[in-house]
Amino acid sequence: MNTYLGKMKQLALLLLLAVGLEATAQSPRLTRGTRAAMNRVDTQHIRSHIAYLADDRLQGRLPGTPGYQQAVAYVVDQYRKLGVQPGGDQGTYLQQLVIRRSVVRNASALAYLKDSQGNTDTLQFVTHFTPQPHPLRQRARAEGQLVFAGYGVEIPGQYSDYAGVDVKGKIVVLVNGAPGGLSSTLTAHFSNPGNKMNTAAAKGALGVILVSLAPAGAGSSNPVVQANVALNPEKTVAYGRRFTGNLDVALTGSYRLLQRLFLHSGHSLSHVQERMQRKEPVSFDLPGSLAVSYETTHTDFESQNVVGLIPGTDPRLRNEYVVHSAHLDHLGIGRPVNGDSIYNGAHDNASGVASLLEIARLYRTSGVRPKRSVLIVMVTGEEMGLIGSSYFAANPTVPRGSIVANVNTDMPTLIAPLLSIVPLGAEHSTLMQHVQWAAGQLGLDVEADPEPNENRFVRSDQYSFVMNGIPAVHVKYGNKSDVPGFDLVRFVREWRAKYYHQAADGMDGIFYFTAGKTYVQLNFLISYSVAQAEQRPAWNPGDLFGAGN
Fewer CB within 10 A of the end CB, N or C, for the chain? Predict the structure, then answer.
């Protein structure tokens, strides 16, 4: 484990130290035409797009509402005006998908612990366990031996919380988080509950109980427990970042439950926690079994990803695609704050959609001719759990193996000069070379993630592409400021507390549109560099995300 982590850290350091490279073997020459295209970025266009998408008339762009459909119609109209070709289903700009909203029927939730003598002990809803909605079944049930498997993390050939235990046909008890010492992207990936459930399901588990080691605060005794997925047309496969129905049951458990399960296990919970903190895999069978059942109600409705196509010019490479993505949705109407109940999402993510529309305009009006084709994809349901991008990445409107890279734009945070960047995910592939070249052209520094505990890598749409084997990057702001002594990370954290997922995120908030221009130029150059390169981006040798892809 330590050797592996050391190699990973060395690799990340070498990649970050290479920022000074002005070009790589795969980077294009920045021609006069390309520079002219960059200079055509118009902050008034960016402002205008954001103002429309964040207007109260769109009521927060919640999928399944007229406001979201207005946003879809706006993007389609912009594509048509720009001459961007349809890239969706059957010659349209739209990719249709079904969104399922699932809610647990609390009164149906039952769980019993059974010991080896057949004695049963009833667990209490919320106090001990809370079922997660099953997206594919109205009634979920399972009974199986309990087994503890630490974080539920498996790094092939390096580390496994499943070493020494067989979980097939059993219910696995896991704790939140991941072993220490990993990079921010790997920590986010292995901490993701959906990934933990996928790993357990692949090993044959019937169900998962995911426990938080933090004491729970006071909450409702009758909560609304809901989740969302995208569905295939037959409604047999679910897509999203969280529980997608590959287990019979999925529960969250309280620390109180974990203490109860350890009572007669022969193991000290505090000692087990200490071993886990030392990065030691800890797994063993727990005494007794669990029987659980609950019911889920489902509501289905249609939504759309909006897909535009800019054809490539190279006879061979035009059949490969670079995907720009940004989520079009936001939270809709919610809890009133100071009399305002519309969550406009100006920064999140009207600014990202505006950036992509401006990138599309550069490609279409500047004379820049990419060799590979470029897809501009506005996805639905990001705020619901990355469900629109999960569906698109698994079921793209072009041949699945033809997508070479994803450049994702989510909440660029245009509130201060953009002087440095954090390219989340790029360090796992040769996509980092294209990022470094683009950043070098604009004089931007490349930094490591200043907020690794935020798990930002799995919280936006590039993660959906990575999980489908496609190298991806999500460029976030860095820590560099042109004001001596100014703590930009702290400023952003304070801004985020006021605006992120709040009704205050409207056009009357803070906007620094010059940063928007730089952000558009950067992402345009990244995709242009990938589009012109002879070789498609490749995963770094031995990279975990590239394994098996």
Answer: C
